[in-house]
Specification:
By secondary structure, this protein is mainly alpha-helical. It has 3 helices and no strands. It has one domain.
Length: 104
């Protein structure tokens, strides 16, 4: 078991409880938003809340906040790779109508 003398960061239980409470509140916000018609903002609200919840999980439960300097680099590289994949998928999707289909 690691102790503080081993160089591991010890997180107080109250921090975990606060993050858990925040996640529960954000889940309630997601549920409440699902029952209201916000028009085109439905997706924006849902993705915003999901991003905030994922950030809390990564920072506190996965200990990325207390990691070494390499941790943010790995997280940034993963997000950059995700952006590349999304961009390549969008280039395919957005250019499908350029060639035209005979008979239409």
């Amino acid at each position: 078991m690691k102790t503080q003398s081993d160089g591991a960061h010890v997180v107080p239980v109250r921090v975990y409880l606060a993050v858990f409470a925040a996640l529960m509140v954000l889940t309630a916000v997601t549920t409440a938003a699902a029952f209201h018609d916000l028009g085109p903002l439905n997706n924006v609200v849902a993705l915003g809340v999901a991003t905030l919840k994922a950030t809390l999980v990564v920072l506190f439960f996965m200990h990325a906040r207390y990691g070494t300097r390499l941790t943010p680099l790995v997280i940034t590289a993963g997000l950059f790779w995700l952006l590349i994949l999304i961009a390549l998928s969008l280039t395919d999707y957005l250019t499908r109508g350029w060639l035209g289909v005979p008979g239409r």
